[in-house]
Structures are given as structure tokens and as C-alpha cells.
Design a protein that fits this description.
This protein is α/β, with parallel strands linked by helices and 250 residues long. It has six helices and eight strands. The longest helix has 18 residues, at 2-19. The protein is globular, with a radius of gyration of 18 Å. Zn(2+) 1 binds at residues 143, 145, 158, 171.
Length: 250
Amino acid sequence: TNGLKYKTTYMSEYLRRYYGLQTEPSWRRKRSDSSLGDRLRDMQRFFGLNATGSLDSETLGVMKTPRCGVPDVLDYTDNTGSRWTKRIISYNIGRYTSDISPATVDRLIDSALNVWGRVSPLTFVRSFSREADIMVDFAAREHGDSYPFDGPLGTLAHAFGPGEGIGGDAHFDDDELWTAGSHGFNLYLVAAHEFGHSLGLGHSTNPESLMYPTYKRQNQHNLLSREDVVKINILYGRGSLSSTNIGGGL
């Protein structure tokens, strides 16, 4: 029974965080609020699982896969498909991780931004101001927004859609092991995904998309799917490489 209780609690927290499950006591909920089963089916459909509304081992396995902290249902997130209204976007790296050298972090962040710069008219310029459009920070647990990190594994990072203040900012969980290689979590891969959110993209149900919510090691020279390129072009227009060279490596 302890195992079942743990799984149910884990599922409820996951659905609250990523699928808008209301967790108030039933007597406080509006009648229109969706049930646990409905939200679980939403999650199963998103990941292409059997939408049974019950917690099977395959569903639990997906829930336990390390992932981005941005919700999958756009109604419940700050990422609403907004866009920057300028073409030169400033970024700054505030707090660094101690896992890799600052110079390596700088290189990986620059490369991750340029994944999107290559296929759009956007240019990313390093700034040393806390007022930069995209503030990059490594932090653990509670870190000043309303979305505390959860320790190792689980949520790896999150980012906010374009806008003032926290808009555009990307936060990386410093309880993870960040690397430039294949062990731990590859910062370039995770950052390229998060910067998609910083530019206004939501999550994709397509496992080939860089904007798929869960972490996977992939070909670093071809990160973007055709869908990713089309979506960024809809927001900002085409870049010099939109049709010829999708992605790009380090």
C-alpha cells in the first residue's frame, strides 16, 4: 500500500505541475475542474500512450523521465506563444554551475542560442546586465520564482516566454550534473530546448522535436526537426539557413 500511495502522490504532483490538475480539496473546487482521470488521459495522449486514465507502468515510466519544468498544457503556463518584437535579443549568464568551467558554459549557451539564430532573423548579443532579455541562471530548490526545483533528476530546467521582467529567462537546476558530453545532462541540449521557450515556443508532442518535454540524447549536429523550424519561422520569419541546414552543432 505504501508503494501505491507513493505512485498516486507522484502522479498527482506530476499532473498538477504539467497538466493543470487542481489539487484543492473537492469541496473547494469549481464543478468545472477536471478530474485526475481526465488529466491523466491528457498526459497519456500527449506522449502517445494508451489513454486509459489509469496509471500503468509505461505511464509511470514516462513520468519519471527527466524533463523540462514548463507545463505541457499551455493554458497553465507563462509560455503563451508570445514573441519578441525585436530582432536583437540580449542575454546574460548570472549564476554559473560548478560542474563545468565558466568558459565552457559560455560556449554552450552561445551555441544553444545559435541553434535558433541560424533558422530565424534573430541575433543574440551577450550583455552583462541583469536587465538582459534572457537571464540564464543555475540555481537549486527555491530560487526566487514560483517554480522551485526538485533536487536531482525530475525537473532539469525551465524558461519563461518573451516579456518584461522574468520573461525570457532560463533557469537550470544546479542539483543536476551538467556536462558538455554524454554523461550527466548535456547543457547544450537542455539549453537549446529552454531557449525555444524563451522565444515563445511551447512543448511538442512530436518525439523528433527539440521541444519534446523529456530529455533525450540526440544528434547534436541536427537538433531541430522540420516542425521546430516551421514554428520559429511563423513567429519571427525565416533565417538564412531555414531550408538548407536544420540545426547545427557546436
